[in-house]
C-alpha cells in the first residue's frame, strides 16, 4: 500500500456552519506536490455521517466526469478526525462576486461562459456510470455563486453536493427531493419534477444576469406573469445593445414549459456560434484586464481557520454508522421540498389587518421555519461563504 498523502494547509478559502474550505499543498511520494482544495466537514455536526455520505457520493460522481469545466476530485479522505473532499484548487472568484464588482459582462464573454457550463451539463448527463448506463446527472443548483471564473479565464462548475444521478453506488438518497435556489429554480422543479431542462432554465437566468448586470428576480409560477416579466427583461437587454440572436436564446432557455427549452448541447452550440458572431474581447483577455485586482482582494479577505499552518496526514477512514436502509425508507415517503412556496397572486387574507389574516401569517411563518430546517439538514453545507467549493 502506498504511503499516506500529507497536506500542508495554506489558507482558508471559505467558511460556513457545516465546515471549512482550505487551500493546501498535497505532498506525495517522490517529492510530488500540487495545490488542492480541502472541503473539511466539521466533526461536531450531529448528522456528520449523513453529510459524509453525500460528500462521498459527490466525490464518486465527479470522479467519473471528464470535462474542463468540472472540478476534478481526488477522493474523500479522513484528516485529523474530519471527513474531507480533496479536489482541484480553482484560483479565481465566483460569478456572484464578479457581478457585484463589475456588473454586466460584454456579450461575447457572457456567451463564452454559458457555452462552457452548458457543455459541462451535457457531458455530466451523458457520461456512462460504472454499469455502462448514462449517469443522467442533474446539477439542480446552477447559479452565479456555483460557477467559478479563474485568473486564466477558465470556467468551472462547482457544488454537485445536491446533484441527482442514476448511480447504483450512491449512498445518500436525493433523487426524490426538490433542490434549487430561489430566483434560479425552474417552475417545474418547485413541484419536484426533475428534468434536464431545469438546469437549462437556471443557466438561462445566469446568462440574463451576466448580460444585464441585474438580478432576474423571483420565479413566477403563473405562465402569464412569467411571460410578462420575461418581455420586460428582454426589452432591458435590447436597450443594452444585446443582439437579437442572444436575446432569443435567453428567451428560449427561460421558456415556461420545459419541452420548449433547448437542451444543454444545443445551448452550447448556439452560444458558441453567437459568441463568434459578436466579436469583441476573448474571455481570457477580459479577465486579465478586469479581474486580477478583484481576485487579489478576495484572497486578502480570507480568515485563519483551525488547520491553517498545519500539516495533516490521511488517516484510515472510519465506517459510516448511519443505516443505509434509512435512505430507502426516506425515498418511499412523500417527497418534501427544500423550496418555500413561491408567490403567484396576492392573498387578500394576508393583506387584511383582522385576526384571520394574522392567523394565516403565523401559519405561513411556522411552515417556512419547518421548511428551512429540512433544507439545512438535507442540502448540507449550502451556507458556505466566499462562493468557492460550496458544500
State the main characteristics.
Phosphorylase Kinase, domain 1; 6-stranded antiparallel beta barrel; Transferase(Phosphotransferase), domain 1; 41% helix; 3-stranded antiparallel β-sheet; globular; 391 residues; 3 domains; alpha+beta
Mean pLDDT: 79
**How far apart are the first and last residues' alpha carbons, in Å?**
30 Å
Percent of residues in helices: 40-55%
* Strand segment tally: 9
Radius of gyration: 22 Å
Residue fraction in strands: 5-15%
Biggest sheet record: 6 strands, antiparallel, barrel
| Side-by-side strand order of the widest sheet | 1-2-3-5-4-9
CATH superfamily of the largest domain: Transferase(Phosphotransferase) domain 1
Could you spell the SSE succession in H and E letters?
A: EEEHEEEHHEEHHHHHHHEHHH
* Quaternary organization: single chain
Indicate the overall shape. globular
Unreliable segments of 5+ consecutive residues: 167-178, 322-362, 371-388
Number of helices: 13
CATH structural architecture of the largest domain: Orthogonal Bundle
Amino acid at each position: 500500500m502506498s504511503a499516506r498523502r500529507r497536506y500542508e494547509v495554506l489558507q482558508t478559502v471559505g467558511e460556513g456552519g457545516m465546515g471549512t474550505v482550505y487551500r493546501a499543498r498535497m505532498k506525495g511520494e517522490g517529492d510530488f506536490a500540487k495545490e488542492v482544495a480541502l472541503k473539511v466537514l466539521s466533526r461536531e455536526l450531529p448528522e456528520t455521517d449523513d453529510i459524509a455520505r453525500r460528500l462521498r457520493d459527490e466525490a464518486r460522481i465527479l470522479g467519473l466526469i471528464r470535462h474542463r469545466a468540472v472540478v476534478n476530485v481526488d477522493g474523500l479522505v479522513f484528516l485529523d478526525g474530519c471527513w474531507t473532499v480533496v479536489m482541484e484548487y480553482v484560483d479565481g472568484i465566483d460569478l456572484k462576486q464578479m457581478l457585484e464588482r463589475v456588473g454586466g459582462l460584454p456579450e461575447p464573454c457572457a456567451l463564452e461562459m454559458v457555452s462552457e457550463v452548458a457543455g459541462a451539463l451535457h457531458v455530466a448527463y451523458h457520461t456512462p456510470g460504472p454499469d455502462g448506463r448514462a449517469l443522467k446527472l442533474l446539477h439542480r443548483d446552477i447559479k452565479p455563486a456555483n460557477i467559478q471564473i479563474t485568473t486564466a479565464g477558465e470556467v468551472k462548475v462547482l457544488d454537485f453536493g445536491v446533484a441527482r444521478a442514476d448511480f447504483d453506488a450512491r449512498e445518500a438518497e436525493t433523487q426524490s427531493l426538490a433542490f434549487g435556489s430561489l430566483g434560479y429554480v425552474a417552475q417545474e422543479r418547485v413541484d419536484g419534477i426533475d428534468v434536464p431542462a431545469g438546469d437549462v432554465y437556471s443557466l438561462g437566468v445566469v446568462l440574463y444576469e451576466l448580460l444585464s448586470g441585474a438580478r432576474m428576480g423571483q420565479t413566477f409560477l403563473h405562465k402569464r406573469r412569467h411571460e410578462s416579466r420575461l418581455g420586460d427583461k428582454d426589452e432591458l437587454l435590447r436597450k443594452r445593445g444585446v443582439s437579437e440572436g442572444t436575446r432569443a436564446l435567453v428567451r428560449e432557455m427561460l421558456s415556461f414549459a420545459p419541452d420548449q427549452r433547448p437542451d444543454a448541447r444545443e445551448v452550447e452550440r448556439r452560444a458558441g456560434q453567437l459568441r463568434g458572431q459578436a466579436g469583441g474581447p476573448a474571455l481570457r483577455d477580459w479577465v486579465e484586464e478586469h479581474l486580477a485586482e478583484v481576485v487579489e482582494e478576495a484572497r486578502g479577505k480570507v480568515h485563519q481557520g483551525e488547520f491553517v499552518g498545519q500539516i495533516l496526514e490521511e488517516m484510515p477512514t472510519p465506517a459510516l454508522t448511519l443505516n443505509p436502509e434509512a435512505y430507502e425508507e426516506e425515498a418511499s415517503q412523500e417527497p418534501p421540498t427544500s423550496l418555500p412556496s413561491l408567490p403567484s397572486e396576492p392573498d387578500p387574507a394576508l393583506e387584511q389587518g383582522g385576526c384571520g389574516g394574522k392567523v394565516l401569517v403565523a401559519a405561513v411563518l411556522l411552515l417556512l421555519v419547518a421548511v428551512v430546517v429540512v433544507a439545512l439538514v438535507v442540502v448540507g453545507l449550502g451556507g458556505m461563504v466566499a462562493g468557492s467549493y460550496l458544500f
